[in-house]
Amino acid sequence: MLGLEIRQFPCLSDNYGVLIHDSDNNLTASIDAPEEQAVEDALKENGWTLTHILVTHHHWDHTQGIPGLKAKYGCKVIGPRGEADKVPEIDESVGEGDTYQFGRFKAKIFDTPGHTLGHITWYFPDQHVAFVGDVLFALGCGRVIEGTTDQLWHSLEKLAQLPRETLVYCGHEYTAANAKFAETIEPDNIHLKARIGEIVEKRGRGEPTLPTTIGAELDANPFIRADRDEVRMAVGMPNADPAAVFAEIRGRKDRF
Ligand SMILES: [Zn+2]
């Protein structure tokens, strides 16, 4: 990971918390703050002190830990410009095209709206890692809560441009349920079949299925594959544009 230490841990019922650490400068950031106690436990376990919270979007299960953690550690809160008014105790806001220097590591910010209007992705290009919040999940994607399916599709298109090896940390462990749905779209996708085997094994051992990679999602996730001929054909929309195919798949998942 070229020096960036990353720890992922479960929070709430199905969220993940993530800490990233720069040992040279003794900096630690929490990606979102789903649950104060779980973040604190992870900090203690690693002997780290919280200096930053990097927020992806305003939903309570990503931000509710902020006030308590900030009171305790005096950490700096950096979040999405588009919804800065909804993120508690925010100190600095960032958006598309910005870079943010976390110690010796540089993050690039992408606006990735659709799930919420101001949702951002934190991408560390030199470390090949992206923190995507609730935009992309393993074999799934976020629900369209505030934005439009077009917006969410364009957000996924942006992530699809990242190098295949990019590690993707997501906000939730939804993979097993997503896999069941993905099978209804592409039952013959060999990559998907292989993934399902791995998922069953990992969950059977109580292990997380995340992080995933951009490459693994491009091979098996029907949502980010909405521009592929196989997926168009599978949903009976051979001539439709990808955003329409994506909207159809998102609609089917909502009713699944
Ligand atoms: Zn959310």
- Per CATH, which architecture? 4-Layer Sandwich
The CATH topology label is Metallo-beta-lactamase, Chain A
From the N-terminal CA to the C-terminal CA, the straight-line distance is: 37 Å
Strand-residue proportion:
15-25%
CATH superfamily: Ribonuclease Z/Hydroxyacylglutathione hydrolase-like
Helix share of residues?
A: 25-40%
> Which consecutive residue ranges, at least 5 long each, have pLDDT under 50?
none
Largest sheet: 6 strands, mixed
Number of strands: 14
Please give the order of strands in the largest beta sheet: 1-2-3-4-5-6
Bound molecules: zinc ion
> Can you write the helix and strand succession as a string?
EEEHEHHEEEEEEEEHEHHEHHH
Rg over C-alpha atoms, rounded to the nearest angstrom: 18 Å
Output the CATH class name: Alpha Beta
Number of domains: 1
What's the mean pLDDT score?
97
Give your account of this protein's structure.
With 256 residues, the protein is of the alpha/beta class. It has one domain (5-255): Ribonuclease Z/Hydroxyacylglutathione hydrolase-like (Metallo-beta-lactamase, Chain A, 4-Layer Sandwich), CATH 3.60.15.10. The protein contains 9 helices and 14 strands. The chain has helices at residues 36-46, 60-63, 66-73, 149-160, 175-185, 190-204, 214-220, 229-234, 242-255; strands at residues 5-11, 15-22, 27-31, 52-54, 76-80, 92-94, 99-102, 105-111, 120-124, 129-133, 136-137, 140-141, 167-170, 212-213. The chain has a 6-stranded mixed beta sheet with strand order 1-2-3-4-5-6, covered by helices on one side. The chain has a 6-stranded mixed beta sheet with strand order 7-8-9-10-13-14. Helix 4 (149-160) crosses helix 9 and helix 5 (175-185) packs antiparallel against helix 6. The protein is globular, with a radius of gyration of 18 Å. The model has no long low-confidence stretch (mean pLDDT 97). Zinc ion binds at residues 57, 59, 115, 134.
